[in-house]
Amino acid sequence: MPGAIPDPDHRHHHDHAHAEGHHCDHDHDHGHAHDHDHGHGHTHSTEERNAYFLDQLCMIAVGGAYAGVVFAMFYGKWVPTGEVSVINIIVPWIQYMLLAGAIMLLALAILRGVGVWKASKDPCFDPHAGHDHGPDENHAHGWSPWKYIPLVIPLVLYIGLGVPDSRMIRAYERDLAEQGLPRGSLRGMGGLDAITQAQIASNQFALGAQGDGLAPALLQSLLLSGAIATEIALEEMDVEPDARPTLGELEEVADNPFMHESFSSLGRIEVEGNFYPASADGSFFHVVRLRVACCLGDARPAMVMCSSRKPITDIAPGDWVAVQGKVTFVSADRKWYPVMRVYKVYKKKPPAYPYLK
Hints:
Strand content: 15-25%
Strand order of the largest sheet: 3-4-5-7-6
Radius of gyration: 36 Å
Number of helices: 9
Order of helices and strands: EEHHHHHHHHHEEEEE
CATH architecture of the largest domain: Beta Barrel
CATH superfamily of the largest domain: Nucleic acid-binding proteins
Number of strands: 7
Largest sheet: 5 strands, mixed, barrel
Structural class: alpha+beta
Number of domains: 2
Distance between the termini: 90 Å
CATH class of the largest domain: Mainly Beta
């Protein structure tokens, strides 16, 4: 009717005409007022579309790289190279959770890659499709390189710089081993045989007054009595050890004085662990295995302190060794420690997982 006031709520149907041959021809049924702006506050330019795909490809690449790093760690674990596998600094059950996560991450990266490839082939693909925009909302679905910085740093450290490497891990293990050594004078020396007392004193293991003048007198008496000959004979014997406790089990025995006799009465035991010299000639050394609850960061050492009549110069610090000898126990800093008079030391291939649980 002429002069009638338009109804602001009047709804209408109209076509948006596109150029001939356009693949995205469609009708719009607008359920809103006449007074509107067909612009949505953002544009779907070719540059924005390309930036969106670049961002997606970068995210897929980073996810795939993290999965690849985990697989590389496990390859180093399963195919021994003589180097410490970084994956071994965490306990096995977490290792396999990490592996499962890497498999899932790789699968998601592949699926997302397929989705992005299909979308790139669709000329009508809209990065803004599938979500709503508020009034005057304007944002871009483009590439933002700054957000990748915290994601890429760990990859650069591990892949580019090789951090952490075997030397760093070994140095940290040695620091932990040294933290477990007694700081005060040893007590209970009377429970050791004369040879072990002389060896310990001559290596200045017994801190304080016990070491003063003890070694020369004992060594002289041992030479006169022929006890050194007995020591040499025991070293040359190639016999099966009476027991092969882990250092964790030996630590538990040391903590219980009522169990000391059951082990100190054995003629020969064998233990395994990392070799750390404590004297210049290696005749006094420690054999250490680290106990871990979660990872190397919460590790603490289990050890046996060893004294050898002969210098040990052909074994490097951190090497995995098996040590045979006779064990006894001494007290220091309100704690009991196992001490071994060494008969035999030899290198051995380390186990797949070197730490104690």
